[in-house]
Amino acid sequence: MTVSVPFVDLRRQYETIKEEIDAAVLDVIRNSAFILAEPTRTFEEQFAAFCGTKHCIGVANGTDALQLALTAMAIGPGDEVIVPANTFIATALAVSHVGATVVPVDVDASTKLIDGAHIASAITRKTAAVIPVHLFGKPVAMEPIRKLCDAKGIAILEDAAQAHGARCGNARVGTFGNAAAFSFYPGKNLGCYGDGGAIVTDSDDIAVSVRRLRDLGQTRKYIHAVKGYNSRLDGIQAAVLSVKLQRLDTWNARRRQLAKRYDALLQTKNVATNSSSPAGESVQHLYCVEVEGREDVVRMLEEAGIGHGIHYPTPIHRHEAYADLGYPEGAFPVSEAWCQRTLSLPMFAELEEEEMDRVVDVLTRALDAS
Ligand SMILES: *Cc1c(COP(=O)(O)O)cnc(C)c1O
């Protein structure tokens, strides 16, 4: 009999918080507190306090969070925005949708994250912003990037969609740039029960602007100062997030503990992992290994019922959507090699150690066979 192991199991987490979630959602319904009402305001205050920022503005999803933050930072046509080639497509789409030019750069060979050296080599007179992405839940080394950007007057927007709660020293990600974008997509470390996102910032100007932009450009009811969007974090999602936020640090600690255990098990099998996090404390959104002959390995995992993912199969510059940028294959070798070799293993706070043992067992047998 094969015992399957899910890549992520949201139902398992729900079972542990069911009573509180059910009560919180019912409360929103009973109060008709659906849009920009008390539950949304409360979560915004809680999440700003959690991150250590002055403001949090809830929006409809993480992609909008990036786009509205860029708009509030006055980034648009004629501007260049530097992004890592190794990221989720949304990082780049937000740049394109404000009319700016996406400038991908390769990532650091050891962390697979964007770094100061690659950014420095891509800066031009048109560079208006950099989007460091704390991918896999690992904080990017922000100090060199900040020095570089401060010296040249370049804005920083952190993409923290995979890194809720990650820290460098005592500071959480989201506090290192002019603003930061979060996603609350269900599978993220802090996920709601639908789509959701937020911008955090210490800047009063960015906060005021994003608050308008997410609500059709309104300053008061039916007074529209700018051409805004409809992109709001709804009350039901906010209520779910308030319940879950209280557990986030505990869940993240459990993910780190599981990652350590994976590390120990895989080290003896000589499997290359990507969990080291030199710049700070990871929240281990993903647990990735690097494998040769990934197709065969994936097939064997599938046959054994082991959940898995690939984050991501294609770097930004090799998507058809970005063919217009004109980068050839080989332009960003570290990102391209990563995309061909990476494989994400089951990782969520409720994963059982016996399940992990089974994942490692099947993976090592697959690697031996391939
Ligand atoms: C999930 C994600 C986003 C987009 O968030 P959505 O809520 O899905 O729009 C952006 N950047 C990264 C790195 C992500 O992982």
Notable characteristics:
370 residues; 12 helices; three-stranded antiparallel sheet; 41% helix; binds pyridoxal-5'-phosphate; single chain
Describe the structure.
The chain is α/β, with parallel strands linked by helices and 370 residues long. Helix content is 41%, strand content 14%. The strands form 4 sheets. Strands 1-9-8-5-4-2-3 form a 7-stranded mixed β-sheet, sandwiched between helices. Helix 1 crosses helix 8 (235-245) and helix 3 (62-72) crosses helix 7. It is globular. The protein binds pyridoxal-5'-phosphate (PLP). Pyridoxal-5'-phosphate binds at residues 61-63, 87-88, 90-91, 133, 159, 161-162, 183, 185, 195, 197.
What's the short version?
The protein is built from twelve helices and 14 strands. The chain has 370 residues and is α/β, with parallel strands linked by helices.
